[in-house]
Amino acid sequence: MKLHAGTEGWVESLAPAGHARRWAETVTRIRGTDVDDLNLEGYEPVPEVLGLTDTWWRGEDSLIALYRGEAAAMEAPRCLEAHIYGGLDDWGVHGG
Question: Using CA atoms, how far apart are residues 63 and 72, in angstroms rounded to an integer?
């Protein structure tokens, strides 16, 4: 199963992960079916990532990475994972 539309999308997905990890005040990891309970209202997708199963969402002061690829490939909902990077300023959310 492909996680990204191509190599470029995969490389683009690495950039926000490194950036968010470095600048976030908080990082919250959610696993399993609790990922489906995330409320993404007020968030917009980050189209640069080009994810097919793994996606990023941008909010006012946070970024959310949703990792669904492993769960989809193995039909294992327990493998769902989300990382919520909070406490970001505008530069932290949008980058340079």
Answer: 22
Strand 62-67 to 55-58 pairing: antiparallel
The number of beta carbons lying within 10 Å of the beta carbon of residue 81 is 19
**Residue 64 is encoded by which pair of tokens?**
């959310």
CA angle (36, 14, 83) in 5-degree steps: 30
Q: Which two tokens stand for residue 58?
A: 């941008």
For 21-30, the pLDDT digits (tens) are: 899 999 999 9
Closest to 40 in 3D by CA, of 55, 51, 53: 55
Distance CA 29, CA 89 (A): 20
**Exposed (0-12), middle (13-18) or buried (19+): which is 60, by Cβ within 10 Å?**
exposed
pTM, two decimals, is 0.83
The pLDDT tens digits of the residues spanning 72-86 come to 778 888 889 999 999
- What is the token pair recorded at 57? 């969402």
